[in-house]
Amino acid sequence: MNDTFPYLPLGPLSAEPDGNRRFRVWAPLPKSLDLVLLTDDDQTLHRMQPEGNGYLISEPVAAPAGTRYGFYLNGKRDKLYPDPASRYQPSGVHGESEVIDLPPVADEDWSGKPLHEAVIYELHVGTFTEAGTFAAAEERLDYLRDLGVTMLEIMPLNQTSGERNWGYDGVLPSALFQAYGRPEDFHRFIRAAHERGIAVIVDVIYNHLGPEGNYLPSFFPVFTEKHHTPWGAAINFDDAHADGVRNYWLENVRLWLETYGADGLRIDAVHAIKDYSANHFLEEVSALADRIGKAQGRTIVTIAECDLNAPRYLQSRKRGGYGMSGQWVDEFHHAMHALLTGEVRGYYEDFGEVEQLARALKDGYVYTGQYSPHRKRNFGRKPGPGITPAQMVVFLQNHDQVGNRMEGDRLLGGIGVDKYLLGAGTYLLSPFTPLIFMGEEYGEENPFPYFVHHGEEALIKAVREGRAREFAAFQTEGHHVPDPQAEETFRSAKLSWKQDDRILEFYRRALHLRSAAPAFADISVDQSGPLITWSIRGGKYTACGNYGDEALTIEVDADELLLASNGATLENNLLQLPAWGFAAIA
Amino acid sequence: MNDTFPYLPLGPLSAEPDGNRRFRVWAPLPKSLDLVLLTDDDQTLHRMQPEGNGYLISEPVAAPAGTRYGFYLNGKRDKLYPDPASRYQPSGVHGESEVIDLPPVADEDWSGKPLHEAVIYELHVGTFTEAGTFAAAEERLDYLRDLGVTMLEIMPLNQTSGERNWGYDGVLPSALFQAYGRPEDFHRFIRAAHERGIAVIVDVIYNHLGPEGNYLPSFFPVFTEKHHTPWGAAINFDDAHADGVRNYWLENVRLWLETYGADGLRIDAVHAIKDYSANHFLEEVSALADRIGKAQGRTIVTIAECDLNAPRYLQSRKRGGYGMSGQWVDEFHHAMHALLTGEVRGYYEDFGEVEQLARALKDGYVYTGQYSPHRKRNFGRKPGPGITPAQMVVFLQNHDQVGNRMEGDRLLGGIGVDKYLLGAGTYLLSPFTPLIFMGEEYGEENPFPYFVHHGEEALIKAVREGRAREFAAFQTEGHHVPDPQAEETFRSAKLSWKQDDRILEFYRRALHLRSAAPAFADISVDQSGPLITWSIRGGKYTACGNYGDEALTIEVDADELLLASNGATLENNLLQLPAWGFAAIA
């Protein structure tokens, strides 16, 4: 009877006692593979030997950390290919790989962060600081801890073309983007965060590969034409040779969680992971994450970006689900955004009623089976038993909601401080897990436009034209699509760190309130016209939001005003809630 | 806040008190729709009025049962379209529809058949008898009852082109194929079966539409390019307008189960029902079937043809599954077939070991995660808790396993009676639900080749060439691909009813044994070399199969030989099991 396809480690393996090491590649496609070890002026070749199931392994060779290497395919020496499992590409996607040995993870007293204790902060390393490196980001950790952040979500670190990228054009998922520093820097960054009680999770992309420098198809059938996604042929999770492909990505899971000792993954657009097999790939990811967490005695989280309102992703594996710890809930954002901005274009046509935000506060999802005019179909389903509010990750903005606007303009400029703080209060004191997009907490005014740095002219042209086409209807006098390829566009996205103290103080106090209360079990939401009130965290305080243009006076059973925006006051059990005002009372 | 897309009845609605009735069509695509009522020499037009959500409804009109009708689209009178919800097409797929009123279902004392009491018999109405009609099939019901059959699975009844078809080229799922009789005949056939204690389930196709006479795309977006199947664009279950499409198919579920009072559905190739929404279409089907069964106080079953070894289809909806009552288990067949025939081509390359059949007897599935050489990936998953053996439907042959061979040759001719009875004993006395393919029980020798009766020359040519290409490697002296379009091919598939008494008696006794024992809870399977023994149904008897060329003598703790093939004997606790022999002992 047949065995299972073996899941084996890839790339440069751990050194043997004599200091030598083997290299393994999964490469069922090429006829032959030569490992090429590079020195400054020479190279040595080692023919890789078949191990079965499409795996190839080298003899033990002297290749200490720092060795540069690559592969020749099919006996041809005209092109040196990077290692598909490369951990570092000192000269970018098209260049050679470098052998990286990272120190063991030894975080004393660190046990991770479950989502119900998480306040997530999403950051892009290249624009978070002027230098755009891990070393520079490390200097901001004390600030983040003091703010109340307990979990960093780092936008993708995988190797993309060029020197700047949002990260979603990755082609070598395990290679740390050389523009941000070296693997050792990120390893140290995580330790520094842990020392401050902050977990670090990594944004990973398992649904597509970037358009430039993707050499994986020369090694293995990474794509399948059985399914398609917005990026073309889908990643092969259920067609012939899918297990080698799965092993390839699961090795990436291991790298971040075991080797770097990160605390979890944010998995990009899981609805584009097309898998009809009996074991959905995400079940394998969550099971592996759980195993690693159990073995190391710490909490590891997996957060899916999911556009389906399908509880299956969040449900435990025992209950037939995929076992994700959490998911991004775009609908909570859309419901708030439509109210605060009055925008009704595109998918915002499905939103704009206060009742929808109240519903989002109850269920996380807005659409739980109702007809969506934008999608032109009944959409979604109630989360159902077994799913907790902490599994819903909510936000006032994120890289997508900002960056996918024509000019990448942030919310604050469009709506003003009062509405901004109403939105902030709503999601920071919601029963869900809040995610702050870097700079949002102090009212950053710099935009976060889409930027790339490709090397191929045709691709650059296509990206420029694609953006122009997408926003054709939005271009008006004085407003245009920033050139995604221009360095200036990238530079414009860097945080200014010009802090609006009123906003920063509001965020600090909201997060303090949140952290001071115990994890809540249930929520009670009332909505009447523009007013929504909800009791959270076991009723220790009540939040009130006025999503209308008229001031409201409300009789309340409370005498303490814990947090207020827009001049809300509480006297003699009367809460004066100005237009678009927010208050937390007890 | 939005409502849910409404699921409404389609076609000619029930008559109102004055005898008139309205017609409803879901047709979001055409600009206008006219209901056309036909008389022998005239026609009257009634403009259909929008009801919202793409539904259109007529004024009440005089249209008693028997009225012929159709629709003009977009004000054009050059083509009369059949009703997408047509129940009958007296002159075929391209012609007008007929208003059908069926009598209410009143089956006294009939409560349906759960799968653990089912012995299924698959029949194709057109070839089951010389006349090829329901009326003729009805005359065989006593024979089937006496054989031990408790459930008929009728190959698809939907309207296809021409006068003969396997049924999988249907284009009007609710129209009863005119070659078999009228709807009233099938309604009566079900009653006649119920009177004999036999349930009737219908083979339905929700994953594709036939190549000729499909006018549905003129009415609504029945396909989506989001997903593809072997037949092209997938049926639209999760794209814009999917709910109207779902309602259209769910109306078909209601027709068979409520209006005809059938006992269940066998759902064709569910792995080709592509649905990424939060509510999989099959969950809606099983939930609807359960509601109908509950309302009418009878058992209704849903059996999926599924090629995924994915327990999700069988798991209850509460446990996150799709709630199918059962599924066809091709792998049980393949494991037996490869042993009995020695065939190793195509998907049989994954089979051929006795251990695999033993595994199938334990789990239903053979591949529960192991590497499949044919699929080139790890395949399947253990059924897991909550799934019962009766949910697995197994067979020695079925229309596909016979008909998808070049000449449609049945198993018996290839392997001889001894091996045939070994296979029969194995699956009939397995813990699973057996399915007999018509004629198999008495050793029918006529083939069951693939046949069609299209009207379009290009299509006929394409089908002929497709078959020739598929079997190019199999054509040898004296063996060729029967012409699928030829009437002779269809006629050659009709049962001869020439009965081999030895085979028929074996089937009768095996089914008698099966029915005499209580439903079993667990199975114990032992395998050693070519011998498999298993205790079934609470250990009331033990089955023994010798899947090898050598006779075996086995010491057993039994003194009664209940069923034997190939001259097996039991004396003094010694079971003599000849090569390829089968015995059931107690």
UniProtKB/TrEMBL annotation, chains A, B:
GO terms for biological process: trehalose biosynthetic process. It comes from the Bacteria. Keywords: Carbohydrate metabolism, Cytoplasm, Glycosidase, Hydrolase. Transmembrane segments: none annotated. It holds the Pfam family Alpha-amylase. Substrate binds at residues 266-271, 330-334, 399-404. One of its GO terms (cellular component) is cytoplasm. It catalyses: hydrolysis of (1->4)-alpha-D-glucosidic linkage in 4-alpha-D-[(1->4)-alpha-D-glucanosyl]n trehalose to yield trehalose and (1->4)-alpha-D-glucan. It is found in: Cytoplasm. The active site is at residues 268, 305. CDD domains: AmyAc_GTHase, E_set_MTHase_like_N. Pathway: Glycan biosynthesis; trehalose biosynthesis. The record marks 400 as: Transition state stabilizer. One of its GO terms (molecular function) is 4-alpha-D-(1->4)-alpha-D-glucanotrehalose trehalohydrolase activity. Residues 122-467 form the Glycosyl hydrolase family 13 catalytic domain. Its EC number is 3.2.1.141. Belongs to the glycosyl hydrolase 13 family. This is Malto-oligosyltrehalose trehalohydrolase. It comes from Neolewinella marina.
